[in-house]
Amino acid sequence: MELAKNHAYLTASMNEPGPMHPVEAALCGLPLIYRSSGSLPEYCNGYGIEYNGPDDVEAAIDRMLVEYEIWSDAVKNYPNTADRMGQGYVKMFEELLVNRTEIVRRRHVWREPLTVLLNHLSVR
User: Fold this and answer.
1) Structural domain harbouring 90
2) CA distance 113 to 116
3) How far is the CA of 1 from the CAs of 5, 12, 29, in angstroms?
4) Helices (H) and strands (E) in the chain, counts
């Protein structure tokens, strides 16, 4: 895999709700340099260096050069794996099934009668 042939991963992405590119890089063993934007800090914190924008990205790269061994070791324990995600989905669906009756009971479908009606009409 070409990505794994590199030493670190730099993303300048902004406002992403769930970026997979830094997850893939971390799972390839690459320490991360990531922008403080969207959900990047949630996925990347503890596995690389955060920066705010064009004014401090160069400093983040310089810092990565100095601290590379620290981040290279840290990313070996990156937790956002496919196995963990799959187990999380299975657990969520199991909990939904166990609590189905209560979830349905709490619904107030008639609070918007027009929406209920439109959802049940066959529009072709």
Assistant:
1) 82-120
2) 5
3) 7, 22, 12
4) 6, 3
State the average pLDDT over residues 106-121: 76
**Same domain assignment for residues 98 and 64:** no
- Rg (C-alpha) for the chain, rounded Å, is 21
From start to end of the chain, where are the E strands? 9-11, 32-35, 48-51
Determine the residue type at 63: R
φ, ψ of residue 50 in degrees (nearest 5): -95, 145
Give the position of tokens 């009756």: 101
* Same-domain status, 26 and 51: yes
Whether residue 55 sits in one domain with residue 8? yes
pLDDT tens digit sequence for 21-78 = 999 999 999 999 999 999 999 999 999 999 999 999 999 999 999 999 999 999 999 9
At position 89, the amino acid (one-letter code) is Y
Burial class (CB in 10 A: 0-12, 13-18, 19+), 62: exposed
Supply the pTM of this predicted model: 0.73
